[in-house]
Design brief:
Layout (H helix, E strand, L loop, with lengths): L1 H17 L13 H4 L11 E10 L10 E14 L2 E13 L6 E15 L2 E15 L11 E2 L4 E2 L13 E15 L4 E10 L18 E12 L3 E12 L2 E13 L7 E12 L7 E10 L2 E10 L4 H4 L2 E12 L15
Antiparallel strand pairs: 1-2, 1-16, 2-3, 3-4, 4-5, 5-8, 6-7, 8-9, 9-10, 10-11, 11-12, 12-13, 13-14, 14-15, 15-16
């Protein structure tokens, strides 16, 4: 039975990726440059380094060979009086297990931030190069499903005349967002479009174009008194008639600076679903801020139809963001004595 689920999942996973399924993180709010290009430089500091790691679906193979996703990003801001011009660089790697499908992405981004009082209006673009490779001999296709055994049989004809081993293309993304400060609430809202140029993407020598992915995100920290905060977040993505929605919140405590080098600790719960599909997973999160480093650790508990094969096991994820504090001089008024 487990072999059957493994075969089904391997084919499903391959179809999703080769037709444009994008890399995603459960801690989307802690992966700024993959969430929207407008996030390039949208923070209080001079520059920052971001690293995300995700490991999932290891229970589908024996021995466990999980699907892993790694991203590394860096961005830097230049001050233009009150406004900012920011530049970013992003590398992503995604590798599957049974299909041995590898995806590598290299992007550069630029964003402009118009500062008006406590509000920041942000616009960014992101462009880069995508490379995908696969080992065809490790793949299975619908024609290779053997009804007599209930399994895929690689000895049967796939029905495909040509299966390429590598594809590459240029990709273009853009986004806008608004962030501000409204009393004790620090909100952030944005919309983005990915794959604006709709590049051709197919291992099967077909004229398949990668459709645009539309993203809406919203979130913000609300401070309660001086020691507590809540950090709700929402994400909605639509891509190739498929939808993905994440919603939840972190709950944090700010530690006294004279007691610990840890600035704050938090925990949270999130839920992943689609607009017209069954629930996918519940996500638990814990984290802290220490020495200007934001650390987040999460785990996805699978509650979809695949829970029979996964035993509710989903994905482990860790996020790290190191931010160098701003060195921008603020305007200071020095009183002058009159004589």
């Amino acid at each position: 039975m487990k072999l059957f689920f493994t075969s089904i999942f391997s084919f499903f996973f391959l179809v999703q990726l080769t037709t444009g399924q994008d890399i995603h993180f459960s801690q989307f709010y802690a992966s700024p440059l993959t969430l929207t290009p407008a996030n390039t430089g949208n923070y209080d500091g001079d520059w920052r380094i971001m690293n995300n790691y995700r490991r999932q679906w290891g229970s589908f193979s024996s021995p466990p060979i999980p699907y892993t996703t790694i991203s590394f990003g860096i961005d830097k801001s230049l001050y233009l009086r009150k406004d900012k011009l920011s530049f970013g660089f992003l590398i992503l790697n995604d590798e599957s297990s049974t299909a041995e499908l590898a995806i590598n992405k290299i992007f550069g981004s630029i964003a402009f931030h118009k500062i008006l009082g406590n509000h920041s209006f942000n616009i960014g673009i992101q462009g880069g190069f995508v490379m995908k490779s696969v080992l065809p001999e490790n793949l299975t296709f619908p024609n290779q499903f053997d009804n007599t055994t209930g399994y895929f049989n690689s000895d049967l004809s796939s029905g495909e005349t040509t299966v390429g081993e590598q594809i590459s293309y240029m990709d273009l993304n853009a986004g806008i967002s608004w962030s501000g400060k409204l009393g004790n609430f620090v909100p952030d809202v944005g919309i983005s479009l990915f794959h604006i140029n709709q590049p051709k993407e197919s291992f099967l020598d077909k004229d398949n174009k990668l459709s645009m992915r539309k993203v809406i995100h919203a979130g913000g920290k609300y401070y309660i008194q001086s020691r507590y905060f809540i950090y709700p977040n929402f994400l909605l993505m639509e891509h190739s008639k498929a939808s993905d929605m994440l919603v939840g919140s972190n709950f944090g405590y700010i530690l006294p600076s004279e007691v610990s080098k840890v600035k704050n600790i938090f925990m949270g719960v999130y839920f992943r679903d689609g607009i017209s599909r069954n629930p996918d997973s519940f996500i638990g999160v814990v984290g802290a801020n220490l020495f200007n480093v934001d650390l987040g650790i999460s785990y996805d508990f699978n509650v979809s139809d695949l829970k029979v094969a996964t035993n509710y096991k989903g994905g482990f994820e860790i996020s790290l963001i190191y931010t160098v504090p701003s060195t921008k001089l603020t305007k200071i008024t020095i009183p002058c004595d009159r004589f």
